[in-house]
Amino acid sequence: MRNPSAFRNWVTADGSAGPSGVSGLKAEARRFHLYVSLACPWAHRTLVFRALKGVEDMIDISFAHWFIGPDGWTFTPGDGSTPGPINNATFLHQVNTAAKPDFTGQVTVPVLWDKQQGAIVSNESADVIGMFNAAFDDIGAAPEGYCPEGEREEIDALNARIFDTVNNGVYKAGLRRRKLSMKTHLIRFMSDTSNAISVASPTILTSRDISAICISIHASRRLSTSPTSKTTTTAAITR
């Protein structure tokens, strides 16, 4: 499951302190680098919002390999992965220790890296989305509107629920050994996914899409209990 994020700084339009209280992180094109993996549901939403806000040319990106081995996320060539540009990293944990040499916490994606200061800005996907939404408008991003500031409390409350039952819900359902527990989390996942879609836009996902997601979760559950594929499947969907 996803633990609380270790890095919670903020990029702002003028470099003033964000919610974390740390200043000096001004939104500038090509200053920041985003680490993601296509195997991570938290990283997905930063990729989606990066496209929605039109900041692809401002925020460059690296993809970690989908398979997570004993040393965590890697940049092993293949299956869409790309090299880690920070200190020629071959493992994502090297990016964390480049920012904080004594770091011993959970190594996760997404990671937003500040190339100017040589530091991690944030590894909290909800915060990264907030930065993309509000900080880069003055330098060419799409006008703010996906997360209007006047609706911040409502958005934060919805995000907290989605974090628990949808993002974390994938893992809670897929990794449960007991069928009843898996079913309980799967029902919560389906219900809150439908709720989130109705709030955002009914055209983003259809009921068929949700069914496909649930089938994938069920398949991962079956594979995770198979003696021949247990290690690979579990590694692929945990961190």
From TrEMBL:
Instruction: Identify the Gene3D superfamilies for this entry.
Output: Glutaredoxin (3.40.30.10)
Asked if the keyword Nucleus belongs to this entry, the reply reads no
Keywords of the record, alphabetical order, are: Oxidoreductase
InterPro entries the UniProt entry points to? Glutathione_S-Trfase_N, GST_Omega/GSH, Thioredoxin-like_sf
Which Pfam family is one of this chain's hits?
Answer: GST_N_2
- The EC code for this enzyme is 1.8.-.-
* Domain of life of the organism encoding this protein: Bacteria
The entry lists its GO molecular-function terms as: glutathione transferase activity; oxidoreductase activity
| Record GO cellular component, one term | cytoplasm
Q: Which residues form the GST N-terminal domain?
A: 39-133
- Give the enzyme class: oxidoreductase
Q: What is this protein called?
A: Glutathionyl-hydroquinone reductase YqjG
Per UniProt, what is the name of the gene that codes for the protein in this document?
yqjG_2
